[in-house]
Amino acid sequence: MTTAEMLADALGRIRDVVHAAVSGLTPEQLAFRPNGTANSIGWLIWHLARVQDDHVAGAAGAGQVWIAQGWASRFDLPFDAAAIGYGQSSDQVGAVQVESADLLIGYYDAVHEQSVRYVGGLADADLDRIVDEHWDPPVTLGVRLVSVLSDDLQHAGQAAYLRGLVTAERRPGKR
Predict the structure, then answer these.
(1) Each residue's pLDDT tens digit, 100-158
(2) CB 109, CB 15: distance < 8 Å
(3) Residue 95: CA count within 13 A, CB half-sphere
(4) Which long-range contacts (CB under 8 A, 24 or more apart) does 8-12 make?
(5) What pTM does this model have?
(6) For 95, phi and psi rounded to 5 degrees?
(7) Euclidean distance between CA atoms 97 and 21, whole angstroms
(8) What is the spatial distance between Cα 135 and Cα 159, in angstroms, rounded to a whole number?
(9) Are 45 and 18 in contact (CB under 8 A)?
(10) Is residue 141 within 8 Å of residue 23, measured between CB atoms?
């Protein structure tokens, strides 16, 4: 297995979890926040897609799907188009209201496609390239991609857990 194949496989696993967590949910289910303040499924998937979009586009020297393909205007969120969710307040998290599961999956899939296309052309030597000098030590492409994978896997898992909570509320025989 090559580096490119391994990265594409990891991204594909995230995609599988995202689809399973989101498919078929209503806008109300996507917006559900345990205790009224926790992250919602909609926010978690939006955020993980935004992080992947921002970080991979930056490393690739490409435009973000969010802006270049018009997803920011389709979502019409009440904050700057550059926002990726990092450090957002509880009120900002609650402001991520998604009109449909299809919209959320559509954006995620567009990001996934760009990411897989990018990592598909990588070789081992590419992973040592410095992509962010704002840290000490500077961040390499390999470290940035592992960070994206880690963040996305965690948030996808959180969304899958929340889906269980949300859909359990609708099952007959619930205690």
Answers:
(1) 999 999 999 999 999 999 999 999 999 999 999 999 999 999 999 999 999 999 999 99
(2) yes
(3) 12
(4) 8/116, 8/119, 8/120, 10/149, 11/112, 11/115, 11/116, 11/119, 11/149, 12/116
(5) 0.94
(6) -75, -15
(7) 16
(8) 30
(9) yes
(10) no
